């Protein structure tokens, strides 16, 4: 990790501690300790199992996609990919560091840069598609509740959905309307030439076109493998399904057994969309605010609501940072850096 990334990590931990303190500042310490001691560890372990399954299924998806073009790729190295992704997603604005970090991990494992980029983009397309699918279902179930409860969050949810929809449409255009999309992208990219010198503009343009070509070729190859695509879509759906279940099991651990699993899961899908709208790494502030507002009608005790929010964030955000640090320290079985991309990540 670079010095800047280390500072960002420490800053996010500090912000997390500050938000947790703010959430419990008006709660008596004895009440908080009593609620904490009454937590059902069994249900909390189930919640922990859900986030671990989330990481596991993403590892399997990565393994399947990369191994289809790189047979020597090992599952051990595939496990590192989502964990390092969680770390860099969590310390960069709009989770922008996750994709480059995954690429570096794959390069370190000896995967060709073009094939690695294509596999990651394909994984990203399927992931976005499953998010959109889950959102549509959740919108039908929980949007009315969201509008009635917190009007401002409804706006963020809609914008978050539009962002995910635009991204997946753009990537699908590369897959199925290649020539037109390439002309459109190159036409829009001319604007960049107004702000940089000619050499840099041409270099960036070549890189962009190469990535478009690689993604298109790889998407065509994988798209013809129907069984593989169906398998990856199912695994990605399961990956997100277990992630969205976490708040429900956290509520069960706090004694709220009458919670509607369908509604709670749907609300977590909507929170996921809200988090994507906040530029602060990890959606810090926005995630906690959304959780508190949406689950306040379910959890009436202020101390248990604050405790539920903290437990949820520990599982869905801070655990990923911790496991990502461990994964970052584990060396791949065969190191093979290409195009100096891994060195650039360290700068």
Automatic annotation (TrEMBL):
Top-rank taxon: Bacteria
Enzyme class: transferase
GO cellular component: plasma membrane
GO MF annotation, one: phosphatidylglycerol lysyltransferase activity
Keywords: Antibiotic resistance, Cell membrane, Lipid metabolism, Membrane, Transferase, Transmembrane, Transmembrane helix
Reaction(s) this enzyme catalyzes, per UniProt: L-lysyl-tRNA(Lys) + a 1,2-diacyl-sn-glycero-3-phospho-(1'-sn-glycerol) = a 1,2-diacyl-sn-glycero-3-phospho-1'-(3'-O-L-lysyl)-sn-glycerol + tRNA(Lys)
Parts of the chain that traverse the membrane: 41-66, 124-147, 153-178, 228-250, 262-284, 305-330
Key word Lipid metabolism present: yes
Pfam families hit by this protein: LPG_synthase_TM
Subcellular localization, as worded in the UniProt entry: Cell membrane
Membrane topology of the entry: Multi-pass membrane protein
Gene Ontology biological-process annotations: lipid metabolic process; response to antibiotic
EC number(s) on file: 2.3.2.3
Main location: membrane
Function: Catalyzes the transfer of a lysyl group from L-lysyl-tRNA(Lys) to membrane-bound phosphatidylglycerol (PG), which produces lysylphosphatidylglycerol (LPG), a major component of the bacterial membrane with a positive net charge. LPG synthesis contributes to bacterial virulence as it is involved in the resistance mechanism against cationic antimicrobial peptides (CAMP) produces by the host's immune system (defensins, cathelicidins) and by the competing microorganisms.
Family: Belongs to the LPG synthase family.
Record's protein name: Phosphatidylglycerol lysyltransferase
Annotated gene: mprF
